[in-house]
Write a structure and sequence with these properties.
6-stranded antiparallel beta sheet; 11 helices; alpha/beta; about 525 residues; single chain; TIM Barrel; 8-stranded parallel β-barrel; 2 domains; about 25% strand; Immunoglobulin-like
């Protein structure tokens, strides 16, 4: 029998499939009852599927080896793009992909990446590792990849080292059907029809690697560059302005005050650094319970950030027309031992899955303002969905969270109130349980729970107002060890299994969440 799978009797008549090592912990009823009140009759806001977006930068093996292997590679591919990666990403229904950066975007000149591959100039990637970038993966390849996985492209333009004319030309090259020099150049390079260009970001981190600008200077530059991002016939561009890093509320205030009428989306970047020390962020796989707790405490801070940045946006945009775009988020660990420090390759454990789960629950609950989020990054870099090694490929625990949460894509958020027990370590406390709730177009209610407590199961009593729990089903992601992770030798160490530790009650249902778990419950 697989060591992850065991039937355990919970209560009188319901069973859960949980890790064998958890059985002793999960059997007793949890001491503290958590409560979740779900207002099934009050849903109004839609959880945009774009909250589940991805980000891929020219960084380490994120593009090369991760996505692109070339048409002559023995690794099965379609026009140079890995078939195994495409198949895996289609399963999590990637809605939108941000590219080419990141810091790389503000040193990227798009004409270097078009035309015959052998004629494209090689450059030095001065931001990430000082390696040679051969530009074999450019605009055509990116758009092809988006088409293969079914994602909408979000192209990030160069404000830091590029010109207004260069940015204007890129938008025309991609999205214009005119009989013009740049549209004809696209045709000459093999693409007759324009591509849809739904999202375009005007610069990246212009407060830092994108030019070290003040908010006032960037706001003026945004207005200038944005003027020349044209909506060609048949295409409407959603324009994303460079927003704040972390707690820089002044940046948000200046941008909204000066440019809100021209902005469609304003970005926010926040990384969870487990130790809080950027010079020593901590291991991805070797950590203590105190470090587990501290990582999740820092991840939960994104709720405060979104709330406060959204409040500033409300001053200038009370109708919430401008979306908050969290287009870089996730856990940033120290790199894998022996790997290139500039490649940012890190393993991905059950702890990362819990960070993803609580973060996505937060974004869901703020869907009235949060309209897109892009986890950093898709493959082989930071908190990735996928790890590759030549012809080998595995998916990570974070990948499975995104798979479980596909039920929230474009669903209606159901307001809810969660009262959770505290999880206390070393005098610091965080809520032990996180949740978000939605109803899909077919009427099924989905609840995603995270039990952050390493050691104790959590019983949650769920009251459904305006609905009945006639039929319940579920899945759970957990593992015996807190640092469990998938490897090329053991690719299924962390993967979801069926969850049955629930029962209907007079006013809803109850569920017993295993320690350190992400749980999906479907209610019909």
């Amino acid at each position: 029998m697989n060591v992850r799978t065991l039937f355990l009797r919970v209560g009188i008549s319901c069973f859960a499939i949980i890790p064998r090592a958890e059985a002793a912990d999960a059997a007793p009823m949890a001491a503290t009852v958590n409560t979740l009140v779900i207002h099934a009759d009050r849903g109004r806001d839609t959880i945009s599927r774009n909250i589940y977006g991805q980000f891929s930068e020219h960084l380490g093996q994120g593009i090369y080896d991760g996505i692109w292997v070339g048409e002559d590679s023995p690794i099965p591919n379609t026009r140079g793009i890995r078939n195994d990666v495409v198949a895996a990403l289609k399963k999590i229904e990637v809605p939108v992909l941000r590219w080419p950066g990141g810091c790389f975007a503000d040193e990227y000149h798009w004409k270097d990446g078009i035309g015959p591959a052998e004629k494209r100039p090689a450059i030095i990637n001065t931001t990430w590792g000082g390696v040679v970038e051969n530009n074999h993966f450019g605009t055509h390849e990116f758009m092809d990849f988006c088409g293969q996985i079914g994602a909408a492209p979000c192209v990030c333009g160069n404000v830091g080292s590029g010109t207004v004319q260069e940015m204007m030309g890129w938008v025309e090259y991609i999205s214009s059907d005119a009989d013009s020099p740049l549209a004809n150049l696209r045709r000459q390079n093999g693409r007759a029809d324009p591509w849809p260009l739904p999202f375009f970001a005007i610069g990246n981190e212009n407060w830092g690697c994108g030019g070290n600008m003040t908010p006032e200077f960037y706001a003026d530059n945004f207005l200038r560059y944005n003027t020349f991002v044209k909506d060609y016939p048949g295409n409407k561009v959603y324009r994303v302005a460079c927003g704040a890093s972390d707690y820089d509320y002044h940046w948000t205030d200046v941008l909204m005050q000066r440019a809100a009428k021209q902005i469609d989306g304003l970005s926010l970047h926040y990384y969870t650094v487990p130790t809080g020390d950027w010079s020593h962020k901590g291991s991805a796989t070797e950590f203590t319970e105190a470090e587990w707790h501290e990582t999740l405490r820092r991840a939960l801070k994104i709720d405060e950030l979104v709330t406060k940045h959204a409040a500033i946006m409300d001053k200038y945009d009370p109708k919430k027309r401008v979306g908050l775009i969290v287009d870089e988020w996730g856990v940033w660990h120290d790199v894998d031992p022996g790997s290139n420090p500039g490649f940012l390759r890190q393993q991905n454990s059950l702890r990362d899955a819990l960070v993803a789960g609580v973060s996505l629950n937060i974004f869901n609950r703020h869907c009235d303002r949060v309209k897109m989020a892009n986890i950093a990054q898709m493959i082989n870099v930071l908190q990735s969905m996928i790890l590759t090694d030549k012809e080998k490929m595995i998916v990570t625990p974070t990948y499975y969270v995104f798979e479980l949460y596909t039920v929230h894509h474009d669903a209606t958020l159901l307001p809810s109130e969660l009262h959770a027990a505290d999880y206390v370590v070393g005098g610091e406390k965080i809520p032990a349980v996180s949740a978000s709730v939605s109803r899909d177009p077919a009427g099924t209610i989905h609840v995603t729970f995270c039990n952050l407590d390493l050691n104790r199961s959590a019983e949650v009593a769920c009251e459904l107002q305006g609905a009945k729990a006639n039929q319940l089903s579920g899945r759970v992601l957990t593992a015996p060890e807190m640092n469990a992770h998938n490897t090329f030798d053991n690719p299924n160490a962390v993967a979801p299994v069926e969850f049955l530790a629930f029962k209907s009650t007079a006013d809803g249902f109850s569920a017993t969440l295993p320690p350190k778990s992400v749980v999906l419950v479907a209610v019909k």
